[in-house]
Amino acid sequence: MSIDPRAAFAAEARALDAADPLAGHRDAFAGAESPLVYFDGNSLGRPLRVTAQRLADFVTAEWGGRLIRGWDESWMQMPFRIGDRLGHLALGAAAGQTVIGDSTTVLLYKLLRAALAERSASDPARVEIVVGRDDFPTDRYLVEGIAAERGARVVWIEVDTTRGVDADLLRAAVGPRTAVVLLSHVSYRSGYLADAETLTRIAHEAGALVLWDLCHSAGSVPVELDAWGVDLAVGCTYKYLNGGPGSPAFAYVAARHQSALTQPIQGWMGAADVFSMGPRYEPADGMRRFLSGTPPVLAMRAMEDTLDLIQDAGITAIRDKSVALTAFALRVSDGILAPLGVTLASPRDPAERGGHVTLSHPAMRAVTARLWAQDVIPDYRDPRGLRIGLAPLSTSFAETLTGLEAVAEAVRAES
Ligand SMILES: Cc1ncc(COP(=O)(O)O)c(C=O)c1O
C-alpha cells in the first residue's frame, strides 16, 4: 500500500507546528489569522498587531502632545538607541556602532565612499572596489557610480546564481589594489549564506575594508559583526525586522574606524554641534557623523516591536526555526514539485542557506501571477525563479505546505 505524500506532509506540518517553540509568536502578526499564504516576509515583513496602537499613540501623545520638545526629549537619540538595541539583539554589535539612518541604498553609498576614500588615502594604489556580479542591483549600481565618480575600478566576481561569493572566489578577486569589498551576507536571489567571518578575514589579509549588506540576514540569521572583525555593514529593516514599507536602514561602523571615516553627505545632523549652526561642517564624533538630515522618527517606530519579539524569542531560536522551515520546504518541493520539473536554485546545505529558497521552472513568472490572484504571495526573480521567503516568526509549517501545494497546482496549470 503506498502512502499519499500529501497526507504524510500534512501530518509532518502538524507535528512540526505542535513542537515549534515559536509558534505562539505568529498570532502577534496582523493578518496571520487569514488563509492568505505569505512567502514574502524576506521582502516586506508583516506588521505586528501592537504596531497599529504604537503608531496611533505616537501621533496623538508624542507628536501631538510634545510637539517640537520631542526632539530634545527622545527623538534625537532614537537612531542611536534603536541602533544599539538592534546591534545587541541581532547583529553582535556592542553599543555605539549601529545607527538607524537613511535608506539602505543611501547608507551603502555613504559607507562605500567613506571606505574607498580612507583606503586610497592611506595607500594610493588601492583603487579597486570588489563586488559580486549577482549582488542586488542597488549594490552594483552604487559601485559603478562611485567608481566613475572617484576614478576607481570595479572588480566583478562572477558567481553561480544558485549560490554566491565564497572564499575561493573572493581570494581570486582581492589583492594589493583592493580598497573595499562589498558583499551580501545572504544572496537576495539564491538565499546563499556567505561565511562572513572567513570572507572578512580574506579581505583583511589583502589589506581591504569589507562592507556587508545584511538586508536578507538581519533578524533571521545570527550575525556577529564584532566577533567576525567586520568593518562596515548596512541592512534593511522592512524585511525580517517588520519596520514597514520604506522603513529606514541601519549602518554599522566598527568603533576602530569611526574617527577615520568621513561620509560624503555632509548634513547638519552629522555635524559636531548640531544646533550651533556654524559656518563649516565638522563631523561629529562616533556614529552621529554618518547621519545627514533629520531622522525619520515615525518610520523608526514599528521595528521596535520586532526587537521586543526578538528579545523574547532569541535570535538562535529564530534561526533554528528558519532552518526547519526551509528544510521542510525543500522536502515538500522534492516530493511534489520536483516531479513537475521544478528544480532548486538555492543551496541544499542548511549551513549555506538563509531564510528563503528559490525554486526554478520555466513557467514561474506566470505561476507567480496566478498565485497572487489566489492570495498565495511568493515573488518572482529572473531567471525562472520563484522565491519562497519563510519569515520564522510569522510563518507556520502548515502555511508553508498550503503554499507549496498551491505552487504545484499553478505549475501544472501553466505547463
Ligand atoms: C540585498 C539588498 N540590498 C539593498 C537593497 C536596497 O534597499 P533600499 O531600497 O531600502 O535602499 C535591497 C532591497 O530590497 C536588498 O534586498
Number of helices: 14
The description of the largest β-sheet is: 7 strands, mixed
CATH topology of the largest domain: Aspartate Aminotransferase, domain 2
Biggest sheet strand order reads: 2-8-7-6-5-3-4
CATH architecture of the largest domain: 3-Layer(aba) Sandwich
Helix content: 40-55%
Shape: globular
Q: Quote the beta fraction.
A: 5-15%
**First CA to last CA: what distance?**
30 Å
Uncertain segments: none
Annotation, overall tally of beta strands: 13
What would you give as the CATH superfamily of the largest domain?
Type I PLP-dependent aspartate aminotransferase-like (Major domain)
Instruction: Supply the CATH class of the largest domain.
Output: Alpha Beta
H/E series? HEHHHEHEHEHEHEHEEHHHEEHEEEH
Q: How many domains make up the 3D coordinates?
A: 2
Bound molecules: pyridoxal-5'-phosphate
Mean pLDDT reading: 97
| SSE-based structural type | alpha/beta
